[in-house]
Backbone:
């Protein structure tokens, strides 16, 4: 998996995770979404998307993408 491929898939993965775990959507910046919960779900259901090269690591980069899409970038 290449980093760019994982980033393109992020929106679809978030939508699938939100539906599977009954998360309120779309994000409005008021609800705190759990990246840890999302990452565990991706590891268990779409493992290949966690396997890309990144500095410092794939989880860190994916969390930045997640926070941006879920309107939680203020945390970073």
Residues:
């Amino acid at each position: 998996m290449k980093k760019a491929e994982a980033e393109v898939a992020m929106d679809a993965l978030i939508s699938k995770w939100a539906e599977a775990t009954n998360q309120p959507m779309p994000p409005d910046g008021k609800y705190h979404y759990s990246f840890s919960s999302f990452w565990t779900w991706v590891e268990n259901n779409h493992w290949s998307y966690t396997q890309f090269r990144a500095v410092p690591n794939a989880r860190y980069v994916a969390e930045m993408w997640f926070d941006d899409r879920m309107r939680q970038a203020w945390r970073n």
Notes: The CA atoms of residues 52 and 58 lie 6 Å apart. The chain is about 55% helix and 0% strand. The helical segments are 3-20, 35-45, 58-69.
